[in-house]
Amino acid sequence: MGTPAFAVPTLDRIVAAGHTVGAVYTQPDRPRGRGQQVASLPVKEAAVRHGLRVEQPEKVKQPEVAEQLKALAPDAIVVVGYGQIIPQSIIDIPRLGIINVHASLLPKYRGAAPIQWAIANGDEVTGVTTMRINAGLDTGDMLMKWETSIGEEETAVTLGERLAVAGADLLVQTLSGLEAGTITPEKQDDKQATLAPILKKEDGLIEWTRPAPYILNRMRGFVPWPGTYSTFRGWGFHVWKAKESDEGGYPGILEKRGKQLFVGCGVGTSIELLEVQLEGRKRMDAQSFLNGNPISEPETLGEQPA
Protein backbone atom coordinates (compact mmCIF):
# COMPACT_ATOMS: atom_id res chain seq x y z
CA MET A 1 0.00 0.00 0.00
CA GLY A 2 1.65 3.20 -1.19
CA THR A 3 1.22 6.19 -3.45
CA PRO A 4 4.14 8.66 -3.93
CA ALA A 5 7.54 8.32 -5.54
CA PHE A 6 9.06 7.78 -2.07
CA ALA A 7 7.28 4.39 -1.93
CA VAL A 8 8.50 3.10 -5.31
CA PRO A 9 11.98 1.87 -4.20
CA THR A 10 10.30 -0.22 -1.48
CA LEU A 11 8.02 -1.94 -3.98
CA ASP A 12 10.94 -2.53 -6.33
CA ARG A 13 13.07 -4.04 -3.54
CA ILE A 14 10.25 -6.30 -2.33
CA VAL A 15 9.89 -7.71 -5.84
CA ALA A 16 13.66 -7.98 -6.33
CA ALA A 17 13.98 -9.86 -3.03
CA GLY A 18 11.67 -12.56 -4.39
CA HIS A 19 8.58 -11.89 -2.30
CA THR A 20 5.20 -12.63 -3.85
CA VAL A 21 3.17 -9.41 -4.03
CA GLY A 22 -0.51 -10.36 -4.06
CA ALA A 23 -1.73 -6.85 -4.86
CA VAL A 24 -0.72 -3.20 -4.78
CA TYR A 25 -3.14 -0.71 -3.24
CA THR A 26 -2.76 2.94 -4.14
CA GLN A 27 -4.87 6.10 -4.18
CA PRO A 28 -7.36 6.64 -7.03
CA ASP A 29 -6.12 8.52 -10.09
CA ARG A 30 -7.18 12.16 -9.95
CA PRO A 31 -6.85 15.17 -12.27
CA ARG A 32 -3.64 17.09 -11.64
CA GLY A 33 -1.93 20.25 -12.81
CA ARG A 34 -3.26 23.19 -14.76
CA GLY A 35 -4.75 21.03 -17.50
CA GLN A 36 -6.40 18.76 -14.92
CA GLN A 37 -5.13 15.71 -16.79
CA VAL A 38 -5.58 12.36 -15.09
CA ALA A 39 -2.10 10.97 -14.46
CA SER A 40 -1.08 7.63 -13.01
CA LEU A 41 0.50 7.74 -9.57
CA PRO A 42 4.14 6.66 -9.11
CA VAL A 43 3.36 3.43 -7.24
CA LYS A 44 0.69 2.48 -9.76
CA GLU A 45 3.17 2.95 -12.59
CA ALA A 46 5.71 0.78 -10.76
CA ALA A 47 3.11 -1.91 -10.10
CA VAL A 48 2.11 -1.99 -13.76
CA ARG A 49 5.77 -2.21 -14.72
CA HIS A 50 6.09 -5.30 -12.51
CA GLY A 51 2.86 -6.81 -13.86
CA LEU A 52 1.16 -6.67 -10.45
CA ARG A 53 -2.51 -6.46 -9.62
CA VAL A 54 -3.51 -2.88 -8.77
CA GLU A 55 -6.42 -1.82 -6.55
CA GLN A 56 -7.44 1.83 -6.09
CA PRO A 57 -10.32 2.02 -3.60
CA GLU A 58 -11.73 5.47 -2.89
CA LYS A 59 -11.69 4.61 0.81
CA VAL A 60 -9.66 1.75 2.24
CA LYS A 61 -12.07 1.46 5.18
CA GLN A 62 -14.84 0.20 2.88
CA PRO A 63 -15.83 -3.32 4.08
CA GLU A 64 -15.18 -4.85 0.67
CA VAL A 65 -11.49 -3.87 0.87
CA ALA A 66 -11.04 -5.92 4.05
CA GLU A 67 -12.80 -8.83 2.36
CA GLN A 68 -10.45 -8.59 -0.63
CA LEU A 69 -7.43 -8.65 1.67
CA LYS A 70 -8.74 -11.56 3.71
CA ALA A 71 -9.09 -13.51 0.46
CA LEU A 72 -5.46 -12.72 -0.40
CA ALA A 73 -4.37 -13.97 3.06
CA PRO A 74 -1.09 -12.00 3.12
CA ASP A 75 1.70 -12.80 5.55
CA ALA A 76 2.42 -9.09 5.77
CA ILE A 77 1.12 -5.80 4.42
CA VAL A 78 3.65 -3.06 3.72
CA VAL A 79 2.55 0.58 3.90
CA VAL A 80 4.68 3.48 2.61
CA GLY A 81 3.03 6.87 2.19
CA TYR A 82 -0.35 5.38 1.29
CA GLY A 83 -2.29 8.49 2.27
CA GLN A 84 -5.21 6.88 4.09
CA ILE A 85 -5.73 5.70 7.66
CA ILE A 86 -5.67 1.89 7.83
CA PRO A 87 -8.67 0.59 9.82
CA GLN A 88 -8.39 -2.05 12.54
CA SER A 89 -10.31 -4.51 10.35
CA ILE A 90 -7.29 -4.55 8.00
CA ILE A 91 -4.61 -4.24 10.70
CA ASP A 92 -5.80 -7.58 12.12
CA ILE A 93 -5.44 -9.52 8.84
CA PRO A 94 -1.71 -10.28 8.21
CA ARG A 95 0.04 -12.68 10.59
CA LEU A 96 3.24 -10.61 10.63
CA GLY A 97 1.36 -7.33 10.88
CA ILE A 98 1.26 -4.18 8.78
CA ILE A 99 4.79 -2.87 8.37
CA ASN A 100 5.33 0.83 7.76
CA VAL A 101 8.44 2.59 6.46
CA HIS A 102 8.57 5.97 8.22
CA ALA A 103 11.16 8.61 7.27
CA SER A 104 12.34 9.60 10.74
CA LEU A 105 13.92 8.12 13.85
CA LEU A 106 10.73 7.49 15.76
CA PRO A 107 9.27 8.63 18.08
CA LYS A 108 10.63 11.89 16.65
CA TYR A 109 8.62 13.44 13.81
CA ARG A 110 5.44 11.44 13.78
CA GLY A 111 3.16 12.65 11.02
CA ALA A 112 2.98 13.50 7.33
CA ALA A 113 6.14 15.55 6.72
CA PRO A 114 9.07 14.17 8.76
CA ILE A 115 11.73 14.86 6.11
CA GLN A 116 10.70 18.48 5.61
CA TRP A 117 10.49 19.33 9.31
CA ALA A 118 13.78 17.62 10.19
CA ILE A 119 15.59 19.91 7.74
CA ALA A 120 13.50 22.99 8.57
CA ASN A 121 14.27 22.57 12.27
CA GLY A 122 18.00 22.36 11.62
CA ASP A 123 18.47 18.71 12.66
CA GLU A 124 21.85 17.21 11.83
CA VAL A 125 20.74 13.56 11.96
CA THR A 126 17.67 11.69 10.73
CA GLY A 127 16.88 8.23 9.40
CA VAL A 128 14.25 5.62 8.69
CA THR A 129 12.24 3.45 11.06
CA THR A 130 10.22 0.35 10.25
CA MET A 131 7.30 -0.13 12.60
CA ARG A 132 4.13 -2.14 13.06
CA ILE A 133 1.09 0.00 12.40
CA ASN A 134 -1.52 0.30 15.12
CA ALA A 135 -4.59 2.52 15.42
CA GLY A 136 -2.55 5.63 16.37
CA LEU A 137 -0.60 8.15 14.27
CA ASP A 138 2.84 6.54 13.82
CA THR A 139 2.65 5.17 17.37
CA GLY A 140 3.21 1.46 16.68
CA ASP A 141 6.08 -0.70 17.91
CA MET A 142 9.44 -0.01 16.24
CA LEU A 143 11.19 -2.87 14.45
CA MET A 144 14.42 -1.61 12.84
CA LYS A 145 16.18 1.75 12.36
CA TRP A 146 18.74 3.26 9.99
CA GLU A 147 20.47 6.56 10.77
CA THR A 148 22.19 9.14 8.57
CA SER A 149 23.59 12.67 8.76
CA ILE A 150 21.74 15.50 6.99
CA GLY A 151 24.05 17.36 4.60
CA GLU A 152 24.51 21.09 5.12
CA GLU A 153 23.04 21.86 1.71
CA GLU A 154 20.68 18.88 1.47
CA THR A 155 17.06 19.63 0.56
CA ALA A 156 13.86 17.75 1.28
CA VAL A 157 13.99 16.42 -2.28
CA THR A 158 17.54 15.04 -2.16
CA LEU A 159 17.20 13.71 1.39
CA GLY A 160 13.89 12.11 0.47
CA GLU A 161 15.54 10.27 -2.41
CA ARG A 162 18.23 8.90 -0.08
CA LEU A 163 15.78 7.86 2.61
CA ALA A 164 13.51 6.16 0.07
CA VAL A 165 16.32 3.84 -1.00
CA ALA A 166 17.51 3.24 2.56
CA GLY A 167 13.94 2.58 3.70
CA ALA A 168 13.46 0.02 0.94
CA ASP A 169 16.53 -1.91 2.07
CA LEU A 170 15.49 -1.68 5.72
CA LEU A 171 12.00 -2.96 4.90
CA VAL A 172 13.35 -6.06 3.17
CA GLN A 173 15.64 -6.71 6.16
CA THR A 174 12.66 -6.24 8.46
CA LEU A 175 10.53 -8.76 6.58
CA SER A 176 13.33 -11.32 6.79
CA GLY A 177 13.84 -10.68 10.48
CA LEU A 178 10.13 -11.00 11.27
CA GLU A 179 9.87 -14.25 9.35
CA ALA A 180 12.93 -15.60 11.14
CA GLY A 181 11.73 -14.36 14.53
CA THR A 182 14.93 -12.41 15.17
CA ILE A 183 13.34 -8.97 15.67
CA THR A 184 12.08 -7.84 19.07
CA PRO A 185 9.51 -5.05 18.64
CA GLU A 186 10.25 -1.98 20.78
CA LYS A 187 7.55 0.27 22.17
CA GLN A 188 7.89 4.00 21.51
CA ASP A 189 8.44 6.43 24.37
CA ASP A 190 5.51 8.80 23.91
CA LYS A 191 7.24 11.38 26.13
CA GLN A 192 9.96 11.74 23.49
CA ALA A 193 7.51 12.11 20.60
CA THR A 194 7.42 15.15 18.32
CA LEU A 195 5.07 15.91 15.45
CA ALA A 196 5.69 16.65 11.77
CA PRO A 197 2.31 17.97 10.60
CA ILE A 198 1.35 18.23 6.95
CA LEU A 199 2.78 21.39 5.40
CA LYS A 200 0.57 24.41 4.82
CA LYS A 201 1.09 27.26 2.37
CA GLU A 202 1.65 29.73 5.19
CA ASP A 203 4.58 27.69 6.54
CA GLY A 204 6.63 29.07 3.67
CA LEU A 205 6.15 32.75 4.52
CA ILE A 206 9.58 34.14 5.41
CA GLU A 207 9.88 35.90 8.77
CA TRP A 208 12.80 38.24 8.11
CA THR A 209 13.20 38.93 11.85
CA ARG A 210 14.42 35.34 12.24
CA PRO A 211 18.17 34.59 12.05
CA ALA A 212 19.60 33.65 8.67
CA PRO A 213 20.22 29.96 9.54
CA TYR A 214 16.55 29.54 10.54
CA ILE A 215 15.39 30.98 7.19
CA LEU A 216 17.89 28.94 5.17
CA ASN A 217 16.88 25.70 6.90
CA ARG A 218 13.25 26.28 5.99
CA MET A 219 14.29 27.13 2.45
CA ARG A 220 15.94 23.70 2.14
CA GLY A 221 13.18 21.87 3.96
CA PHE A 222 10.19 23.31 2.13
CA VAL A 223 11.08 22.39 -1.45
CA PRO A 224 9.34 21.85 -3.75
CA TRP A 225 6.28 22.99 -1.74
CA PRO A 226 5.34 25.39 -0.21
CA GLY A 227 8.78 26.88 -0.80
CA THR A 228 9.78 30.10 0.96
CA TYR A 229 8.36 33.41 -0.13
CA SER A 230 7.83 37.08 0.67
CA THR A 231 6.67 40.11 -1.33
CA PHE A 232 8.59 42.61 -3.48
CA ARG A 233 6.86 45.87 -4.51
CA GLY A 234 3.52 44.22 -3.78
CA TRP A 235 4.23 41.13 -5.90
CA GLY A 236 4.80 37.59 -4.68
CA PHE A 237 8.53 36.96 -4.36
CA HIS A 238 9.75 33.36 -4.09
CA VAL A 239 13.27 32.68 -2.82
CA TRP A 240 14.56 29.36 -4.16
CA LYS A 241 18.24 29.50 -3.28
CA ALA A 242 20.32 31.63 -0.94
CA LYS A 243 23.36 31.42 1.32
CA GLU A 244 24.40 33.03 4.57
CA SER A 245 26.39 36.25 4.28
CA ASP A 246 28.51 38.26 6.67
CA GLU A 247 27.31 41.55 5.18
CA GLY A 248 24.85 42.32 8.02
CA GLY A 249 21.74 44.43 7.54
CA TYR A 250 18.28 45.11 8.90
CA PRO A 251 15.47 42.50 8.81
CA GLY A 252 13.67 42.46 5.46
CA ILE A 253 15.81 45.19 3.87
CA LEU A 254 16.84 44.25 0.33
CA GLU A 255 20.05 45.82 -0.98
CA LYS A 256 22.04 45.60 -4.19
CA ARG A 257 25.79 45.47 -3.76
CA GLY A 258 27.56 45.26 -7.10
CA LYS A 259 25.78 42.49 -8.99
CA GLN A 260 24.64 40.74 -5.81
CA LEU A 261 21.44 40.88 -3.76
CA PHE A 262 21.40 40.76 0.03
CA VAL A 263 18.58 40.72 2.58
CA GLY A 264 18.98 41.50 6.25
CA CYS A 265 17.67 38.96 8.77
CA GLY A 266 17.32 38.81 12.54
CA VAL A 267 20.08 39.35 15.14
CA GLY A 268 22.34 41.13 12.65
CA THR A 269 22.54 38.26 10.15
CA SER A 270 21.88 38.37 6.41
CA ILE A 271 21.57 36.16 3.35
CA GLU A 272 22.63 36.54 -0.27
CA LEU A 273 19.84 35.73 -2.71
CA LEU A 274 21.01 33.38 -5.47
CA GLU A 275 17.83 32.26 -7.25
CA VAL A 276 14.46 34.00 -7.03
CA GLN A 277 11.11 34.11 -8.80
CA LEU A 278 8.80 37.07 -9.06
CA GLU A 279 5.07 36.36 -9.26
CA GLY A 280 4.09 35.41 -12.82
CA ARG A 281 7.72 35.07 -13.95
CA LYS A 282 10.18 32.20 -14.26
CA ARG A 283 12.95 31.34 -11.81
CA MET A 284 16.14 33.31 -12.37
CA ASP A 285 19.47 34.13 -10.80
CA ALA A 286 19.97 37.37 -8.88
CA GLN A 287 21.72 39.18 -11.72
CA SER A 288 18.92 38.40 -14.17
CA PHE A 289 16.41 39.60 -11.61
CA LEU A 290 18.30 42.87 -11.19
CA ASN A 291 18.43 43.38 -14.94
CA GLY A 292 14.63 43.43 -15.05
CA ASN A 293 14.07 45.07 -11.66
CA PRO A 294 16.71 47.76 -11.06
CA ILE A 295 17.33 48.56 -7.40
CA SER A 296 19.09 51.82 -6.62
CA GLU A 297 18.06 52.27 -2.98
CA PRO A 298 17.39 49.69 -0.24
CA GLU A 299 13.85 48.28 -0.39
CA THR A 300 11.69 46.39 2.07
CA LEU A 301 10.58 42.81 1.48
CA GLY A 302 7.29 41.66 2.98
CA GLU A 303 5.14 43.42 5.52
CA GLN A 304 7.47 44.41 8.32
CA PRO A 305 6.26 45.34 11.80
CA ALA A 306 6.36 49.08 12.57
Sequence-ordered SSE layout with sheet pairings:
Elements: H1 8-16, E1 24-25, E2 31-32, E3 37-38, H2 42-49, E4 54-55, H3 63-72, E5 77-79, H4 88-91, E6 98-102, H5 114-120, E7 125-132, E8 142-149, H6 156-180, H7 212-221, E9 228-232, E10 235-245, E11 253-257, E12 260-264, E13 270-278, E14 284-285, H8 286-292, E15 299-300
Parallel strand pairs: 1-4, 5-6
Antiparallel strand pairs: 2-3, 6-7, 7-8, 9-10, 10-13, 11-12, 11-15, 12-13, 13-14
How does this model look, in words?
By secondary structure, the chain is α+β, with helices and mostly antiparallel strands. Helices cover about 25% and strands about 25% of the residues. The chain contains 8 helices and 15 strands. It has helices at about 10-15, 40-50, 65-70, 90, 115-120, 155-180, 210-220, 285-290; strands spanning about 25, 30, 35-40, 55, 75-80, 100, 125-130, 140-150, 230, 235-245, 255, 260-265, 270-280, 285, 300. The strands form 4 sheets. Strands 9, 10, 11, 12, 13, 14 and 15 form a 7-stranded antiparallel beta sheet that branches. Strands 5-6-7-8 form a 4-stranded mixed beta sheet. A hairpin with a 5-residue loop joins strand 12 and strand 13 (about 270-280). Helix 5 (about 115-120) runs antiparallel to helix 7 (about 210-220). The longest helix has 25 residues, at about 155-180. The mean pLDDT is about 95.
